[in-house]
């Protein structure tokens, strides 16, 4: 045995440094060992890699988000049947017909579906015209108030007053001034859906960080530049939140206006009043469900537009917070 071999045999063992040393005749190599945590290898080419759990959590959350509303819906349907057959007397069941009666007597009736379809088309027209006008007026109103404090003090009380005045008290006056046709229905729709656009847009424009304003001023940006490139992009989540609220209210406004202004072509509001006066329970409930579906569809549309305009950065930053 050589002197070098005897020295290697007699030398103390080196401390564990997390490396694996192996010897080849005449060559000694050292390779790093995979990192460990609590005795479990975390990486390495040959070791097992940790399985990501984010995809499983997301899919499980989607299933939960779908199952919970479905369970509530089934519970409401069951409660509906209980009220119809256990609470109401047989001669009074027309006040709340069972869901299957609505399907057989109203949904499958061609004449009823035709009337509701025509009324739905007219209500959609009033809804989107009124909502577009409310968005244009409300956004301009909020931008004007955000640019100067005196303008806000002068105009914001009138926005609050417009929201507080009972619309039913204004309906006779609107009919007296503008008639009882399509323009009056649109005016009622605008009055009901205007305030959420004004308040949410103003809140978003005024919530921009003051430091960002100072940074833009430092680079010589004017008021218009700061509005277009700083305030409006930062206020988009709040602006679209107001749009979604106004979208649902615009359907309410269209139906309320049609309910009181009975002249001209009938919408869903006129059909509701007609079915109510004739005690046509299945047709009445089908019209109510159609109006609710329209409101939900418009709300969902603006939710999709919000995600399209804002993107997912807002949701990610909110989740991170």
Shape: globular
What is the fourth-level CATH superfamily of the domain at 125-310?
MetI-like
Number of helices: 12
- Gyration radius from CA atoms, angstroms: 33 Å
* Helix-strand sequence: HEEEEHHHHHHHHHHH
Percent of residues in helices: over 70%
Mean pLDDT: 79
In CATH, the topology of the domain at 125-310 is named MetI-like fold
**What is the second-level CATH architecture of the domain at 125-310?**
Orthogonal Bundle
Strand content is under 5%
CATH class of the domain at 125-310: Mainly Alpha
Query: How would you characterize the largest beta sheet?
Result: 2 strands, antiparallel
Give the low-pLDDT segments.
17-31, 36-49
Structural class: mainly alpha
Q: How would you write the strand order of the largest sheet?
A: 1-2
Give the number of DSSP strands.
4
What is the distance, rounded to the nearest whole angstrom, between the alpha carbons of the first and last residues? 68 Å
What's a quick, concise take on this entry?
This protein has 321 residues and is mainly alpha-helical. It is built from 12 helices and 4 strands.
